[in-house]
Amino acid sequence: MTAFLDNTLSGLALGxxxxxxxxxxxxxxxxxxxxxxxxxxxxxxxxxxVAVLHDDLGFAGALAVAVLATGLLAxxxxxxxxxxxxxxxxxxxxxxxxxxxxxxxxxxxLSRRIGGDLLSLGDPWGDAVTEIGPVTVADSRIAAIAVSAxxxxxxxxxxxxxxxxxxxxxxxxxxxxxxxxGVRLSRVRMLAWCLAGALAxxxxxxxxxxxxxxxxxxxxxxxLKAFPAAILGGMASPxxxxxxxxxxxxxxxxxxxxxxxxHVLGEGVGxxxxxxxxxxxxxxxxxxxxxxxxxxxx
Amino acid sequence: xxQAPPQERPALHVEDVDVMYGQAVSALRSVSLTVPxxxxxxxxxxxxxxxxxxxxxxxxxxxxxxGTVTAGRIRYGDTPLDGRDPVAAVRAGVVQVPEGRRVFAxxxxxxxxxxGGLGLGRRAPAQVREARDRVFGLFPVLAExxxxxxxxxxxxxxxxxxxxxxxxxxxxxxxxxxPSLGLAPLMVHRIAEVIREINAQGTxxxxxxxxxxxxxxxxxxxxxxxxxxxxxxxSADDLARTDAVRRxxxxxxxxxxxxxxxxxxxxxxxxxxEATRPATDPTRDQGAA
Lengths: 298, 289
Fold this sequence. Notes:
heterodimer; A: mainly alpha; two-stranded antiparallel sheet; B: Rossmann fold; 6-stranded mixed beta sheet; 4-stranded antiparallel beta sheet; 10 strands; 31% helix; globular
């Protein structure tokens, strides 16, 4: 029973962090039709900035700068690189390929700087734990769940209640009709990229915090697990991204938690499990859990 | 407040406009027309004549279709509109209702209406309320359906929503692209009444139609576009009496003209093969269900 609660909590914490990254995928896809393969390297950049800045600025200051800088860089990538031919959704496949190039450049430079080091982010939780009844939870995981819940709630409110959110959803439904209403497509898109970058930087903190050993050059690859989460949810649905992330997080935690009982499947099943779940769900619901209409861009 | 430069009674002037798609396709050649303040002007023509292209040139969406205004000028009052983006047109008070309604199907009726004001940025709540009251006055059904997804409305209701959405930007000139398309005759009649009412409230209308009977009954002036050029221009009454228009757009044979009854609001394009609706028309006829 304790093991079950333990796995549930770490699954939720993992899922909450994946949700931050998956939400970034979804916001970008909805706004521009692009699959952003550079999301992982943006995450790594955010983590790296916190790691190098926290001595001078303190953790909170470093985090603020990292979130802001990563968001601005993501916006700049979209505005200056991807949108060179205008905010034309028909160019999305080409722009998707460009994000692979951006990813390679960023990852190469960051790997060169990080090398084989394990960087501490100087987060306030350290290796502290809290006892909740029979289970012991790392404080960093509680923080991950709490912060993600607040941030995701805020992002959903942005979608629902702000002119930007309405513009984004209208443009995702019908780009030309939205343009006729006076929606500035390129600006709406760029802001979506900024948001996704900021979310990635925030996620980096929790991915590098205890019980993870710290930030390493491969931390960005963890973002790839948010990819099946976003696809699972339906790619264009923020609610789907959240649900998909929790599914993936829980799957991973449980498979890892019961690894010893699953040894017939071999080592490292936990890493494969998210993709197995994604494929299983897509066999039943090809458009994802919430993707009935939204995933189709015409 | 982001509005057009103050001018009391602006009119839309399209002067000798050429439009090209890509490098080679000439869609409009030397097209001129004027929509006076508070007037209704209709533009008739078959499929592919360039009617929608002209509206795109005015509303600034040509670029989305890789088209450009290569010659001539378009201005609304003192505001130049050729080569500008759609935001400029909306802010100048010129709003287009696209062909085929194009409501945001997954958004609620309420959100669709809210999206109509997006181009104007932040507005005083009183202004928004005024625009909304006007829309609900014209289309009470939209007030009842506020929370429903727009995609679940009938075709006629969607057309009302598309017009209502455009009116949320409080336009002084409304560009209507085939509002009768795919609607049942009864609903076409209703839309015609609404256009008349919107105009009576002081909004000018540029009406693009294939349903010439309806369009000519509403408009003050009319133009006939054929393969990118204006063929006929004049008052709507005069044009309705010319043989060519009667034959091609009102669906009358020459023998019948002595009887003199226009087909009116029914779909009056039966004898003109190039004017019939395309079989692939994606919109469904469910208007007055």
